[in-house]
Amino acid sequence: MRISTFWYCLKQGFINICRNIWFSLASVATISACIFLFCMFFSIMVNVQHVVKNVETTVGVTVFFDEGLSEEQIRAIGSVIGQRSEVSSMEFTSAQEAWDSFQQEYFEGMEDLADGFAEDNPLAGSASYQIFLKDISKQDEFVVYLENLDGVRRVNYSSSAAAGLTSFNTVIGILSGVIIGVLLAVSVFLISNTINVAAAFRRSENQIMRYIGATNYMIRAPFVVEGIIIGLLGAVIPLICMFFLYRQSIGYIEERFQILSGIFQFLPLGQIFPYMAATAMLLGLGIGFFASFFTIRKHLKV
Amino acid sequence: MIEISNVSKTYETGNKALRNVSITIEDGEFVFIIGRSGSGKTTLFKLLLKETEPTSGKIVVNDMNLGKMPRRYVPKYRRRLGVVFQDFRLLKDRNVYENVAFAQRVIGASTRRIRESVPAMLQMVGLSAKYKMFPQQLSGGEQQRVAIARALINRPEVLLADEPTGNLDSHNAIEIMKLLEEINQMGTTVVVVTHSQEIVDRMQKRVIVMERGCVVSDEKKGGYTHED
Ligand SMILES: Nc1ncnc2c1ncn2[C@@H]1O[C@H](COP(=O)(O)OP(=O)(O)OP(=O)(O)O)[C@@H](O)[C@H]1O
Ligand SMILES: [Mg+2]
User: Fold this and answer.
1) pLDDT over threshold 70, residue A301
2) Which end of chain B is least crowded, N or C, by CB within 10 Å?
3) Which of B76, B77, B89 sits opposite A208 (nearest CB)?
4) pTM of the predicted model, to two decimals?
């Protein structure tokens, strides 16, 4: 296609939009709402996932074993645990290591005092495995499994807050999926209507174009351009909003809930915005293109 | 060359618009098609434009068999025909220049070609001075000239005119006919449907008379013989 033809179609697309500005604006507004919600859920989910990931890699399950088990026996149990599919990684801490780190922590500067225990490790029964899970939502089941293992004395694990977060994420995902789906359907319906009105405006022009020998692509182009512009506008507007809102909301949350600041590490906007923007633009483009393309195709069947 | 052989057209409504029509038009001819209302003249044009398909028979235009033409080739084929209608069918929101340029834009012509050919075409139809005017600021005759310029801008081999003077007074009608004759003399085949006895008698061209979907007479240098 020639550049001049491209500009011509672009111009005609804009003319379509201006001729029927209210319909076009309504379409843009619906897509904007749809994509804004998408961006919001996207940010929430990505952040929650980030927090969960943090928790998963820093908070693990610690297993202690019955006193009197030898290190070999403990390691054997460990290798059985290690074969479970939920396990992402595990670390063994022998009784000696536990004692060493205990000394460092509590007897700093008073090593002589600790030396008194040298031959008789007071933490003899404290060999342990620290286990990190792939998916923290499985933690509860996994702990039950561990507690029922022979030779396991105690299982230490943090509250299932992180697991709660994961299921929160699932709920958010489903909820947003439904809302976005409904808004998407409304957007497609509105764009389709807008294109129908534009096509009615251009009925005679399209007829003339056909006589002159314009290809179907050429006849469709202004409408598809119209759809794409509406779709892209519907993506750009919420992205601009997000760009400013994101920082503000994070600032607000961090200020309001300072207690959480230890666990809740928010992702900086720069890290998620490129993905969010790309997805949103593709979404807008896709809605605009397909809705207009299929609507106008229906019209041009002669 | 246009060869219409044994073509019949029955619309879905059961209307028999054409019955076994055969017409051959050579390159460079000027042909009038006359006949009372409903005799099938416009239907014939629609078949030539491949807007509808004949129920039976064969149409060959410039060695292309329309019945066997794939759909995607139709736009290319139509570029070799120019069409003019009684009601002009100009774009009301665009001026004279843009109406003519339109025909080139929509087939993807370059801006340079458009800038060269549109003024030349407007000069030919005598509208150079009014290129900025909008259709509703022009007389009927002038509007039809714009339509003719638009039909010719892509240099078609055949010009089909369906009652081009139907909305014009006799002076304007004769001016338009003179223009069509000029175009014909430059090599374009011209086929004109008309109801005007004055024009047919005056031009002394080939006349095909249709009646109820049949060709009832076909004379070289004919007059307006059928009674309306
Ligand atoms: N789309 C259509 N569907 C059904 N019947 C049609 C259609 N178009 C035309 N006809 C019928 O076909 C016949 C021929 O119509 P056509 O338009 O070809 O006549 P015409 O010679 O051009 O008439 P006029 O001089 O009034 O323009 C008429 O009886 C008309 O009613
Ligand atoms: Mg007619």
Assistant:
1) no
2) C
3) B89
4) 0.77
Say yes or no for a CB contact (<8 Å) between A210 and B78. yes
Kindly list the distances between the CA atom of residue A131 and the CA atoms of A70, A160, B6, in Å, as whole numbers in the listed order. Answer: 20, 15, 89
Which tens digit of pLDDT belongs to each residue from B137-155?
999 999 999 999 999 999 9
In tens, the pLDDT along A170-191 reads: 888 888 889 888 888 988 998 9
Q: Find the closest chain B residue to A220 by CA distance.
A: B106
CA of A198 to the centre of ligand 1 (A): 29
Q: For residue B60, give the 3-state DSSP assignment.
A: strand
| Binary contact (B78, A211; C-beta < 8 A) | yes
Res B61 pLDDT > 90? yes
Q: In the sheet where A128-133 sits, what is the strand order? A: A87-93, A128-133, A61-65, A152-156
Q: B20 in ligand 1 pocket by Cβ < 6 Å?
A: no
- The whole-angstrom separation of Cα B211 and Cα B217 is 9
Q: Cβ contacts (< 8 Å) between B155 and chain A: which residues? A: none
Parallel, antiparallel, or unpaired for β B30-34 and B189-193?
parallel
A214 in contact with chain B, both atoms CB, cutoff 8 A = yes
User: Ligand 1: distance of its center to the CA of B40 in Å?
Assistant: 6
How far is B145 from chain A, CA to nearest CA, in Å?
16
Between residues A133 and A12, which one has the greater pLDDT?
A12
| pLDDT for res A124 | 66
How does DSSP assign B87-132, residue by residue?
T----TTS-HHHHHHHHHHTTT--HHHHHHHHHHHHHHTT-GGGTT
Q: How many CB pairs under 8 A join A and B?
A: 48
The larger pLDDT score, comparing residue A254 to residue B32, is at: B32
Query: What is the helix (H) or strand (E) element at residue A130, kind and residue range?
Result: strand A128-133
| In the block, residue with structure tokens 């030919």 | B124
- Is B104's C-beta closer than 6 angstroms to any atom of ligand 1? no
Give helix B140-152 / helix B111-124 axis angle, nearest 10°.
Answer: 140
CA end-to-end span of chain A, whole Å?
25
Dihedral of alpha carbons A160, A165, A166, A172, sign: positive
Quote the ligand 1 centre to A49 CA distance (angstroms).
69
Q: Is the pLDDT of residue B83 over 60?
A: yes
Work out the average pLDDT over B208-226: 85
